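Researcher: We plan to redesign the surface later, but first we want a full-length starting point. Tokens attached.
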């Protein structure tokens, strides 16, 4: 074999061995996804997933809560109430100066909820939250942790609405809705300060629906009138009084006021709560701002039930009902032309059949000085209208 052939043979053998060697080597594994990526790149890839999860948790309810919460406040009231300490009657005989009856004043704290209705610091709450005492100290706590002394602008016992004012013109305010276009079954959100849990933090939130509307209770509750109330199953508890009831659009549609407990042994929420409609609140607040709500009026007549003898004397064909038995001189009733023996048929659009129905009919309107009491009476076989204009009771005379 010559030298040139031997050299080419060796080169060819090396070439074949190199090919075989390359074919038998294992390929290096590819790096796992993200192994060599930065933290920012990983977060960027996960962002769409996080956004999707967040959006699935965000609803109209959560957005409404976010919108309203800054304007919900805690109303802390300290009432100065008069107390009487009565001494022992036996010891008073011997030590009259030491054991005599003593009058002292005591601070009584209470709390409730409220909501800001304008940026200049007007706050609405229930009248029963503020109370009626010789002296009352009121403090407002907002959800951002600030605390303000509050002034009582006005309160209306009958409608159970009070208006407060704090000195700050940069406050977040609620959006007041329209309680005339509510829908049974639509979402409701109750916000407030149950049991004093919210003082310098966010208000408590409960969710439900509008269960019913135009709820009347057929009687005056301790002198207050609760009519056309909104019923909701959103939980309302002690301390929620005065807080807003909100719809899914974040509009205030009412003010949480009281609950039905289901019995004398139950004191918690059973899913039946009631709120004053916001349209009535707007009307009362306007009157309180202008100092135009005066419930101290008189009518000037008395009534009695009809019996068989009275019906015969009057010539009235029925043997039950209510008739006018007394009219005060120079009273609104006399000025309106009401006469003795008139049989009351209707007051404020409601039929009158007995004494209870008279009280209900008289309480169907949030009457004040200057309003009209629209009546229909039976007189000598004819139905006649009598419209009494309510006047200021300057002599302390009852109706």
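Model: Full-length starting sequence:
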């Amino acid at each position: 074999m010559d030298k040139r052939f031997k050299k080419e043979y060796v080169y060819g053998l090396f070439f074949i061995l190199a090919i075989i060697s390359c074919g038998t080597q294992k390929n290096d594994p590819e790096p796992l996804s993200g192994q060599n990526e930065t933290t920012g790149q990983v977060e960027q890839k996960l962002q769409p997933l996080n956004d999707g999860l967040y959006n699935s948790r965000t609803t109209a309810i959560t957005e409404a809560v976010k919108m309203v919460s800054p304007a919900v406040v805690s109303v802390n009231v300290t009432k100065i109430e008069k107390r009487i300490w009565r001494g022992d009657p036996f010891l008073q005989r011997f030590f009259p100066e030491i054991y005599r009856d003593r009058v002292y004043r005591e601070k009584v704290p209470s709390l409730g909820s409220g909501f800001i209705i304008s940026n200049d610091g007007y706050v609405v709450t229930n009248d029963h939250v503020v109370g009626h005492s010789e002296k009352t100290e009121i403090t407002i706590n907002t959800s951002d942790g600030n605390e303000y002394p509050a002034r009582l602008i006005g309160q209306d016992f009958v409608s159970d609405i009070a208006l407060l004012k704090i000195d700050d013109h940069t406050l977040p305010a609620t959006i007041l809705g329209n309680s005339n276009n509510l829908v049974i079954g639509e979402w409701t959100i109750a916000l407030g300060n149950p049991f004093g849990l919210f003082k310098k933090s966010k208000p408590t939130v409960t969710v439900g629906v509008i269960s019913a509307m135009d709820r009347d209770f057929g009687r005056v509750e301790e002198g207050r009138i609760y009519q056309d109330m909104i019923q909701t199953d959103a939980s309302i508890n002690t301390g929620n009084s005065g807080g807003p009831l909100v719809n899914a659009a974040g509009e205030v549609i009412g003010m949480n006021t009281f609950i039905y407990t289901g019995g004398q042994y139950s004191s918690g929420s059973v899913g039946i709560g009631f709120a004053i409609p916001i349209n009535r609140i707007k009307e009362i607040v306007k009157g309180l701002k202008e100092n135009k709500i005066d419930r101290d009026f008189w009518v000037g007549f008395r009534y009695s039930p009809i019996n068989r003898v009275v019906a015969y004397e009057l010539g009235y064909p029925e043997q039950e009902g209510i008739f006018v038995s007394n009219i005060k001189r120079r009273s609104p009733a006399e000025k309106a032309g009401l006469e003795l023996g008139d049989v009351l048929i209707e007051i404020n659009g409601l039929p009158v059949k007995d004494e209870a129905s008279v009280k209900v009919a008289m309480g169907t309107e949030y009457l004040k000085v200057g309003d009209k009491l629209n009546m229909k009476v039976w007189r000598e076989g004819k139905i006649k209208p009598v419209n009494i204009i309510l006047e200021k009771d300057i002599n302390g005379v009852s109706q």
